[in-house]
Amino acid sequence: MEVDPSGVTRAARLTALAALCLVTVVLLLPAAISVSTGGAVPGFIGEFGRWLWPAVGAMVLVAIGLALWERVRGHETSSRTAALSRVESRVKALLASSLAAQTQIKLGVLKQPRLAVRVEGEGISSSDLEAVYDRLGHTMVLVGPVGSGRSTLLRELCLALVERARNDPEAPIPVVVDLATWRAYGTRKPTEFTAWLLREMNRRYGISRSAGTIWLRRERVTVLVDGLDEVPRVDRAHCESELAPFASVVCSTGPIENLPSVFVEPLSRGQVLEYIASVSPRLDSLESALTPEIWDRLDSPLALNLLALTHLDKQVDTIGTDFVGSFVVERLSGQRGAGPTIRALKFLARLDRPDLGAPVHMPHRRAWLPLLPTRPLWLLFIRAVPAAYAGGVCAVAFMTGLRHGLWSALVFVVTASALLVMVNKLPHVFHPPGRAHGIITAALAFLAGVFAGLLVGLVGLWLGEIGTSWPYFVTYVFVVVASFFLALGFIPGDAPVPWAVLIAAAPGVAMIWTGPYAVLSGMGLGFSAGVAGGVFAAAVGRVWRTVRPAQHQRMRLGRPWWVQPAIPVFGAAGLLGGIGTTGSWGTALGVALGLLVTPTAARDYVWPFDALAEVAAEGVTRPLSLGELSFRRKALLHLAQDRLLLTRVDGEYRFTHVALRDHLASCDPTALVRATRR
């Protein structure tokens, strides 16, 4: 009897989790509540009664850890039987979700035309790929153009090898992996492909990494590779060398050195006519419309399926040569508001992610920001960014005036505006493309800036109150030393120390009259606002550097953006919070000193400000994708799946075929919308 070690481990994990919950709920928690409410300590606990609540907390943390472990690792197996079942289940799901299978359902036919293969150098074709696989020593390359049926043949071969492995304990376990999920950018380690392969085997088939490592080393796994053509050309040679020790069968549009090539034969005219006749009478008018030019292109399962689905149950007079384009138009015709759907599908096609339905897994902005048109970029840099700055300055100035008086708020507005000009990463403004005003965008960004400014102000007030309980001398020294280091980061040049000493002397002298507590209170608020403003400026600069030169050229340069009056005007509006009291000049000096951190926070190489700027840059750009994908993303994905443009396997959405993805990626959305309306 075969024992699955991972199953034993999982049983032990679940037993431990149940025992922890039982002990905590039945014994420790009631005893802790009893002791806290004045009850007696149970006799069996004795002198350890004071540790009841810490013990309850520790038990809860351990239980949470075991539950998370079960969620992450509970699906894994090292059982050969379980692995074969999972491989069979997933490969059948892949076949069922393919365009060929969907075509069979729509047309009501039992099967597709049977494909044949021919070994390089041989003139005889064979429809038994498994026999060819055995004759070539279990290593080959399936060669054929896009849409020739290579992936279908690969998956059918995998199912045959699964059945063989069930009957023969010595036969290896077949697994199908898709290289579309592998990227080799910047890798130098030869084990990178191995790590990816183990991760795919674990994620797709639940094979534990320890078992996968052993099976690969002992050649107990047959790796069937699909999607080699999806690997970028710059990584192609590296990928082929990496997969050579593991791959048994590879799908490719061209031969691979040192591997025997097996060519997928094109469909014959007889196969096409037999298929059309099997769908009678739903495709009766199609045969008479097939011209010699169409016959030359109608040699693959993809072309046959697209042609059948496009002209199903229709009177066909003429057939265009663009099978993919005609199919897309047919699938999207009759839909109300097709424009946003087409634009979203084009964006997803150009984005080229393995899972199109995972918004939380959006790649780095470098992958998709260059795909955006000019308008959302203009709205971001010219409307949203200045409005957010203005809202933040207004909110912080208002809180400063309420707490520290008019002089402190005025110093904050003037100093913050000047420092934002200094750390500004966008040297120019752009005239709007067309008549894009973006008032709503500016209003929303202003409200977001006000909200962020209120949070920054609260943090600053809290920082300023920390030192109120410190001794006078300690607070005095701290203000002088902090001012010195803030000035070091602010002063440019190779010899900033003398200037930093001079700047630090200012609070040293001023505190003789104002006292150190007033200056420290202002420094806390200035420091908080300076960090927020500097990080935000650095984030905007990072986003700007991601924009392609071609996108720059579509925007006309104008005057410097910071002369727009939004920031000082709304900052002045924030001074209303200081009406009624002038405040202390010591606090105003502290605000200015705290703001000296702004240039340091805006630098891309100072930790932790650089990490914060990267997070902020991703947060700033993420809303831009909504212009392409819309809020009703799930409805869009379901619609595209119903129209056979997308498919779903393992909870992941993908394009039904790479040819559809490439067509949508290169299409003109405006022309496609017009075509769907005709």
Explained architecture:
The structure is a single chain. By secondary structure, this protein is mainly alpha-helical. Helix content is 61%, strand content 5%. The protein has 30 helices and eight strands. It has helices at 5-36, 52-73, 80-97, 99-107, 129-135, 150-167, 192-205, 209-217, 233-243, 269-278, 292-297, 301-310, 323-332, 338-351, 365-368, 374-404, 406-423, 439-466, 472-490, 497-514, 516-546, 549-553, 566-574, 585-594, 598-601, 609-621, 626-629, 633-642, 658-666, 669-677; strands at 117-119, 140-143, 173-178, 221-226, 247-252, 261-264, 646-649, 652-655. The strands form two sheets. It has a six-stranded mixed sheet, with helices on both faces. A hairpin with a 2-residue loop joins strand 7 (646-649) and strand 8. Helix 4 (99-107) packs across helix 12 and helix 12 (301-310) packs parallel to helix 13 (323-332). It is globular.
Question: How many strand segments?
Answer: 8
Spatial shape: globular
Radius of gyration: 33 Å
Portion of residues within helices: 55-70%
What is the subunit organization of this protein? Answer: single chain
% residues in beta strands: 5-15%
